[in-house]
Predict the structure.
Amino acid sequence: MIWDQLTSEEIGQLDKNIPVVLPMAATEQHGTHLPLATDRMIGEHFSTELHKVIPDNVLILPIVAVGCSDHHMDFEGTLTLRHDTFGSQVQDIVRSVIHHGFRKIVLLNSHGGNQGIGQVLIEQLGDAHPDCHIAMVTWWKIAMDNLLELNETGFGGVGHAGEFETSLMLLIAPELVRKEKIAPGANTNTFDWAAGDMLRGPAASYYQTMKEMTPNGTFGDPTNATKEKGILITQYVIQSLKKIITDFSKIS
């Protein structure tokens, strides 16, 4: 079910045991070949596909479309919220959901820059609402084993606007992919312990702006991206999401 497509009366009549999903995304640069809406469209895509699989057993909230993207602000068009602004927005939405009687909330994240504040949010919300069950899932993390097998571009190839995000956009909105501008990212090497991508995390956190990480805005290699790969990524992520929602549904 889609939260804002229901009436107030219909929301009131729902079983409050149903898990509620809040998609969290970003509006920011994605290299020269992908639109600013990439993270939002990917988050909405996974929400829609999850709803198709279990329409009566999940409740999808409107997406938080602007996230924490200060590290992308060197590139035109990027929008960003301060961590406390983003955190307040998510907390207020979740508090509204809890006020209406729902106790199982999943934050569905499609932007790397939201992960830090996302962890803080589930700890703050969990502490403030001990009778609730709250989780955050980031799409590439919950399907990591399958995605590692699917990855063709190797270490550093599935970063920002790389092989996986481009494959998803070729599936979701191929008309928005500037195919003639697809080229490998200009990944900048720093320290071995700071190297990583979406699937292979660094040993330690080291802050850099995206322009410092890659002057052309693409971190990774989108040249091996395909629509078919986007379909497989979707299947793997939805399989994992369905299990998470199903597990939440079983909690008494």
Summary: The first helix runs from residue 8 to 13. The chain has nine helices and four strands. The chain has one domain: 3-250. The chain has a mean pLDDT of 96.
